[in-house]
Design a protein that fits this description.
The chain is mainly α. The protein has 2 domains: 208 residues, Rossmann fold (3-Layer(aba) Sandwich), CATH 3.40.50.620; 95 residues, Tyrosyl-Transfer RNA Synthetase. Helix 3 crosses helix 13 and helix 11 packs across helix 13. The structure holds adenosine-5'-tetraphosphate (AQP).
Length: 336
């Protein structure tokens, strides 16, 4: 009898800026749920962090890799059940990235909204920023991935990944399994606390106080950011007129506490925003306190993390090798 294949899950975070509660809600908490039933691979995508060189200095990048990997584990990703590794330590990513770049029409990349918004903010736009969704497609296709759990901002990139894989299969024969995005219904796009019309962002969180809730922010900073979060000019919470800022706070409460949204609305309806914010501080703290503690424990003994990442990279290399070999053979690389 043939063994039933578990669903393969792949996702990652760039080691740039300050990992925040939006990354946790939109992506990492979903990964933690999936690891129970899926064959899950979680990568720190450091090659992607190079696409905006201003965002991470070379001297900081290696330290960030460690910090993000330790945070995955501190958030509940279990390295004994999943594969956790640093992208640049598995060279198959860069190799497949090049092969796919050669098979991707330029027009597809110019349409990416993230390229448009990020390139507007740069004085000099590196080619890597344009091509990075192809590398992201390589990351995913390299592992015969079924599901990619991400925040809503990544939906267009996962669709592009499917298009790239599909085109490659048509041009060179069946090579890649086509993945689907997995996006939360609630919490897929957590907004900035200071600017609820903008996605909470790692880079903005690093420079603008009160924008994000960093996973390693101290309790005082978390409280300050929540209590100062933009709501609306009204004095009391009315769900029917709730502004984006208020809805954002309710979403954070809902996903982090696991309580039904309507129960939360019923409790705070008609009261001042201060009550909702004060209780949200406790809900956020209940999530962050164990993460901070576990991160501190892992940071105290770098050898433990090194061993886990070495094992993860080794396993990832083994999984990637046959898929890369298939792609190389099908495009005609190497010798007959
Ligand atoms: N605000 C968010 N709400 C929900 N999910 C989010 N994600 C990101 N922001 C939110 C999801 O977190 C995962 C990792 O993100 P990333 O490393 O790809 O980078 P980013 O967080 O999208 O980018 P930055 O660094 O926040 O943006 P910039 O550089 O513009 O400041 C992904 O699954 C993402 O969807």
């Amino acid at each position: 009898m043939s063994e039933i294949r578990k669903k393969r899950v792949f996702s990652g975070v760039q080691p740039s800026g300050k990992l925040h509660i939006g990354n946790y809600v939109g992506a990492i908490s979903l990964w933690r749920e999936l690891q129970a039933t899926a064959d899950a691979i979680f990568c720190v995508v450091d090659l992607h962090a190079m696409t905006v060189p201003e965002a991470v200095k070379p001297a900081e990048l290696r330290a960030k890799n460690r910090e993000i990997a330790a945070l995955y584990i501190a958030c509940g990703i279990d390295p004994s059940r999943t594969t956790v590794f640093i992208q640049s330590e598995v060279t198959a990513h860069a190799e497949l990235g090049w092969i796919l770049t050669c098979a991707t029409p330029l027009g597809w990349l110019h349409r990416m909204t993230q390229f448009k918004s990020k390139s507007e903010r740069q004085e000099t736009v590196g080619s890597g920023l344009l091509v990075y969704p192809v590398l992201q497609a390589a990351d995913i296709l390299l592992y015969d991935t079924d599901l990619v759990p991400v925040g809503e901002d990544q939906k267009q990139h996962i669709e592009l990944c499917r298009d790239i894989g599909d085109r490659f299969n048509h041009l060179f024969g069946e090579t890649f399994r086509l993945p689907s995005p997995l996006i939360r219904e609630s919490g897929a796009r957590i907004m900035g606390l200071d600017a609820p019309d903008q996605k909470m962002s790692k880079s903005t969180g690093e420079t603008v106080p009160g924008h994000s809730i960093g996973l390693l922010d101290p309790p005082g900073a978390v409280k300050k950011a929540i209590m100062r979060a933009v709501t609306d000019p009204g004095q009391e919470f009315r769900d029917e007129h709730a502004s984006p800022g208020v809805r954002n706070l309710v979403t954070l409460y809902e996903v982090l506490s696991g309580e039904p949204r309507q129960a939360i609305i019923d409790r705070y309806q008609g009261g001042g925003y201060g009550y909702l914010k004060k209780d949200l501080v406790d809900v956020v703290e209940a999530t962050l306190a164990p993460i901070r503690a576990e991160h501190a424990r892992l940071s105290a003994d770098p050898a433990v993390l090194d061993r886990l990442l070495d094992e993860g990279a080794s396993r990832a290399r083994d999984l990637a090798a046959p898929v890369l070999a298939r792609a190389k053979r099908n495009v005609g690389l190497g010798r007959a």
